[in-house]
Amino acid sequence: MPRIYPMKNLRISFTATLESENYPGALTVTQHTINTSPPFLRLMGTPTSIPNDTWLQGHSFLSTVAKYSNDLPQAEMTARELAYNAPGNQGLRIDYASVLQARGWPRAAENELKKAEVIEPRNINLEVEQAWTALTLQEWQQAAVLTHDVVEREPQDPGVVRLKRAVDVHNLAELRIAGSTGIDAEGPDSGKHDVDLTTIVYSPPLKDNWRGFAGFGYADGQFSEEKGIVRDWLAGVEWRSRNIWLEAEYAERVFNHEHKPGARLSGWYDFNDNWRIGSQLERLSHRVPLRAMKNGVTGNSAQAYVRWYQNERRKYGVSWAFTDFSDSNQRHEVSLEGQERIWSSPYLIVDFLPSLYYEQNIEHDTPYYNPIKTFDIVPAFEASHLLWRSYENSWEQIFSAGVGASWQKHYGTDVVTQLGYGQRISWNDVIDAGATLHWEKRPYDGDREHNLYVEFDMTFRF
Which residues contact 426 (CB under 8 A, 6 or more apart)? Predict the structure, then answer.
């Protein structure tokens, strides 16, 4: 008769192996459990058989290993089969919802948790998973109520401790810094040795859905005529609720020794787990190139986009933007960007990134780069390699490369090449920071010119 290991010891062994990032070891424990545990056990002295919890636990481990190994389709298939073959098992339904959440489907996860709630409404694991789903759906009050309940009942439970940490971090203030700096540039848009920096501080949440913010922006670049500098002082409010995000901003834009008021209204709406629409209206738009502003040209813009998200392995977005320049130029831009995952493992993810871009302008004799028509096709690949991870702390490096073509009216078609290398760290849930070195060579008015620059960003909760 196969040897049956005590359930508690089995879980301890599996969890320890998984937390040490030893995925082959976790899979070995899983396969050993499945191979040595029959689906049913016979009660001594009777012909009656009962389900073997150890066998069931082994198959649950199989889903968990797949989830943490970045094989989410396999994790979903296994978890769904277990949950629907044992509809009375609340734990399996919760595990299935967790996988749906990991795949970026919080509403589907919410539906599964509603089904699980019928069995035991106040189960700790159920309420923890419901709180995580509420956070993703921006149901802040629901997340707070659930978290308070489980902390009161099981404050030492590891899942409860992790959830409480996430809610505490959500309630902190937030600093965002993002920008780029040119190292060696020949392109006409931003100038040589250009700098672009934006720093914004968000307040802690106010009345669940609101946050105030204030910040500063700076951009400069050296052009043939002389240096261009733009400074921005900005403030605004943000609204976050289920399916909706809105942000309104007022900015004081300083350039050419003038102060002019700018404004921005941005928002998006989620129809479901797959479809999102968004838009942005901007007065004194940041879509106007720095060189145009250096020459006294400003503009207002409108943007709209649609995003389709299948799962973590496939998504596409289409956007349209219109900019009305003060020199009578009008610019239309249409772009399509996508992501197709072609490889995933515990430490390496490779994505194919198709990209199309079309631009059209009605004025041609302008002091800034302004093609009559241009069309770019630049497919690229991106590889994310996890160098180190310990619980919520991680360090990864990102490689990217793309080759395509750019067509410009009156100048024909030429090659576009792109390379990038970056690193990113996440620390203790409060710091997420990265920097990427980009090199690009592309045609401008028939001449291929290169641009070497660094992009960086950081989010810090405090």
Answer: 392, 393, 394, 432
Q: Which of 334, 326, 406, 333 is nearest to 366 (CA)?
A: 326
> For the chain, what are the domain ranges?
7-170, 183-461
Run of H or E residues at 211 = strand 210-222
Task: Give domain 183-461's CATH number out of 2.10.260, 3.40.50, 2.40.160, 2.60.300.
Answer: 2.40.160
CA atoms of 220 and 230, how far apart (whole Å):
6
Residue where the block lists tokens 């309940």 = 149
The predicted pLDDT at position 34 comes to 81
- Name the average pLDDT for the chain: 93
Map tokens 């350039």 to a residue.
255
pLDDT reported for residue 240 = 98
> Does residue 183 sit in helix, strand or coil?
strand
Secondary structure of residue 366 in the 3-state scheme: coil
In this model, does residue 430 exceed pLDDT 90?
A: yes
Contact (CB, 8 A) for 374 and 359 = yes
Give the CATH number of domain 7-170.
1.25.40.10
| Strand partners of residue 385 | 348, 397
